[in-house]
Design a protein that fits this description.
Elements: E1 3-7, H1 16-27, E2 32-37, E3 40-43, H2 47-52, E4 60-66, H3 70-82
Antiparallel strand pairs: 1-4, 2-3, 2-4
Helix pairs in contact: 1-3
Length: 88
Amino acid sequence: MPERTVTIVNQVGLHARPAAQIVKLAAGFKSDITLAREDLEVNAKSIMGVMMLAAECGAQLQLRAEGPDAEAALDALAHLIADGFGES
């Protein structure tokens, strides 16, 4: 299963708007996608799951995907997160 490790770089962390961006982007892929932080692993297509991660600035997340477009999904999500969700 492909995996990427990403760091939350925006100052306010993973709040509602970035969580919604993750879910919206993940929903566009056929693969099963999960996000993990420490011992908590959640479905990246679930807003409640993503919000439960409560990831602050500097937190590391593991992105995992399994399916026909797994690599593309991970690349897109890693780019979104590395870009700080477009927040300044």
